[in-house]
Write a structure and sequence with these properties.
Low-confidence stretches: none
Radius of gyration: 21 Å
CATH superfamily: Amino acid/polyamine transporter I
Distance between the termini: 58 Å
CATH class: Mainly Alpha
CATH topology: Amino acid/polyamine transporter I
Order of helices and strands: HHHHHHHHHHHHHHHH
CATH architecture: Up-down Bundle
Oligomer: single chain
Strand content: under 5%
Structural class: mainly alpha
């Protein structure tokens, strides 16, 4: 984005779209407070095959790709303090996955406690950075006025920002283990979307306050560059520690949420039955957690996580558009009385559906070959679904 207003408008637009999605998920969570999250919503309101494809894409590329990518980012920033080669970074990433998987294997309370501690520390660190950035050692940077940006470039920029907002729906996956989920999860979704949006807009305002726009555009590590402009050499260490915290939060959050989908699929007969078994002592889907950890470690060890994830990430928004359609179908059911009803219905879900479709379409148009490969990974799940369901019926 060639202007300060353009950069900040991207973060605001992505935050609004995330809030719309969070509101859709909030009503779903109130009406269908069951373990599995988006899988349950799609299965119950669109079709079982749609829910299966969501879980399929999650496991083979999307969510496990996030685990692998976050673990590698964590390891790279650990290397800031303890230099290591590529093999060491991969080993550290694998170690992080295994350690956090073990924490979540021990119980949802342990995983959620760790998540809370990391999040509180991270938000506090961001607040300190913002206060410090508001009083830089030198004069604030001024920026020239730039021409407006084309719609296509704006949407592509929003698509990139949405990657960083990703994960807003994961709180719904543990509904079966949450107290009063029909109230707790909607509140968490709305509050979380608003807090994250404020953090992103404030942080990027700080970067643009400390650095020229040209530097922001060309920087490979804008947060570190801003911190160095603010605090010198110490800034790099501060930001590295903050990124390690952020990576731990993302990594732990996905490790906590993902297995609940595979557990729900197994309970519905859409995955191997052994994935639906709970640990006798810790009452966690330990086998699903273990399988997730193994495949994530394979993606890190082979370096294939990036190719898989970047090709399939846009398909999430196709599923989100279908989830929005599913809300209309849910509202049409007789006797429908959820505890929480989203604000702005029916306009907000319609805007969410349209925006999700536009994001996916423009990403496809930007790179048709890679997008086709990603869609093929998802569609490959259809014959698996039909084979699985026919085999299950034949056995009964």
């Amino acid at each position: 984005m060639p202007s300060v207003a353009g950069v900040l408008s991207v973060w605001v637009a992505a935050g609004i779209l995330t809030l719309f999605g969070a509101l859709v998920c909030a009503e779903f969570s109130s009406a269908l407070p069951r373990t599995g999250g988006v899988y349950v919503f799609l299965k119950d309101t669109i079709s079982p095959w749609c829910g299966f494809l969501w879980g399929w894409a999650m496991f083979w590329s999307a969510h496990l790709g996030i685990i692998a990518a976050s673990a590698v980012i964590l390891a790279r920033y650990v290397a800031y303090f303890a230099p290591m080669d590529d093999a060491g970074i991969r080993a550290t990433a694998i170690g992080g996955i295994l350690l956090l998987s073990y924490v979540n294997h021990r119980g949802v309370r342990q995983g959620s406690t760790l998540q809370t501690a990391v999040t509180v520390t991270k938000v506090a660190a961001i607040a300190v950075l913002l206060v410090t950035a508001s009083r830089p050692p030198g004069a604030a940077v001024t920026h020239a006025v730039a021409p407006p940006v084309a719609f296509r470039e704006f949407v592509l920029a929003v698509s990139a920002a949405l990657f960083t907002y990703g994960g807003w729906h994961m709180v719904t996956y543990t509904a079966g283990e949450t107290r009063a989920p029909e109230k707790t999860i909607p509140r968490s979704l709305v509050a979380g979307a608003l807090i994250v949006t404020v953090c992103y807009v404030a942080l990027n305002s700080a970067y643009l306050h400390l650095l020229p726009l040209e530097k922001v555009i060309t920087s490979k590590r804008v947060a570190a560059d801003a911190a160095e402009a603010m605090a010198g050499a110490r800034g790099g260490a501060i930001v590295s520690a903050l990124v390690i915290l952020s990576a731990c939060g993302v990594l732990n959050g996905v490790i906590l949420a993902g297995p609940r989908t595979y557990f729900a699929m197994a309970e519905d007969g859409m995955a191997f039955g052994w994935l639906g078994r709970l640990h006798p002592r810790f009452h966690t889907p330990s086998r699903a957690i273990a399988l997730q950890a193994v495949w994530s470690c394979v993606l890190v060890a082979t370096g294939t996580y990036r190719a898989l994830y970047t090709r399939v990430v846009y398909t999430e928004w196709l599923f989100f558009a279908l989830m929005g359609v599913g809300l209309y179908r849910l509202r049409a059911r007789q006797g429908y009385r959820p505890v929480f009803r989203m604000w702005g219905y029916p306009v907000v879900p319609a805007l969410f559906i349209a925006a999700s479709a536009v994001v996916a379409a423009i990403q496809i148009a930007a790179d048709p070959a890679e997008s086709a490969a990603g869609l093929a990974i998802v569609v490959l799940g259809l014959p698996v679904y039909y084979f699985w369901t026919r085999t299950k019926h034949a056995n009964h």
